Structures are given as structure tokens and as C-alpha cells.
Amino acid sequence: MSLFDYILCEVPLPDGFTGELQTKDLGCYLLTHVITKDGRLLLEHVDRIDYELETRTTSRRDANFHGMLRFYGRTLRTRRARDRKDDTWEWHEYNAKFVHGQLVSIERDMRKTKG
Question: 3-state DSSP call for residue 112?
Fold first, then answer.
């Protein structure tokens, strides 16, 4: 099992997917990052951790991200067994292009449609 970060995408995805999204492109700290409806990528930063209360305080900052961001999720197609090992899943993978902090496009990577 490996670490990842979550992506919350406020921009509608090309195929209408609305499930949980993950990425390994942003440090893999189990944080949530947001692609805003205005097309900006906000990175979540941990400002303070209170180990006694087991809480953390975070803030979101504009990343001014430039480049490609790959993220992905999956949906259950067919439930076959109670233990879920034989379930059929549909893989949703996307490439988001940012230029000087502004989202230019999000495209689904159709080469990876099964999971």
C-alpha cells in the first residue's frame, strides 16, 4: 500500500465522474488539494499538529502550479461477491494541464479505463 493525496475537483470532469480522486503527483502526504471552479490549484498545508488532542490545523494556498497533474478514481461497475474480490471496477484517470497557475484543460486518459 502506498501513500497519496486527495483531489477535490470543483470543475466538472469530462465524463461526469464525481467520486473520490487521488494523486501521487503532489507529495503523497494524505492531504486534500482543490482544483477550484476558477481553475486554480490550492494545496493544503499543515500549519499545526496537536499530538495530545490528535488534531491538525490546515490552510489552503494557491500553488501557482505549472505543468501536468495526473489524478484518478474508480467506480464500481458490477458487484459479484460479498468479499468484493471479484467486483468489476471502472478506472477514471485524468490529466489536468496548468499554465502559470491557471487550469487550461482536463482530459480523461482513455488508455486506462479498466481497473
Answer: coil
Strands (E), the chain: 5-9, 21-23, 32-35, 41-50, 55-62, 67-78, 88-99, 102-108
To 5 degrees, how large is the angle CA 23–CA 67–CA 43?
A: 50
One-letter amino acid at 22 equals: Q
d(CA 42, CA 34): 5
More confident residue, 85 or 74: 74
Specify the pairing of strand 5-9 against strand 32-35.
parallel
Q: What is the distance between the alpha carbons of residues 112 and 87, in angstroms, rounded to a whole number?
A: 17
Contact 45, 58 (CB under 8 A): yes
pTM: 0.79
pLDDT at 11 over 70: yes
Check residues 115 and 96 and name the one with the higher pLDDT: 96
Which residue ranges make up each domain of the chain?
5-108
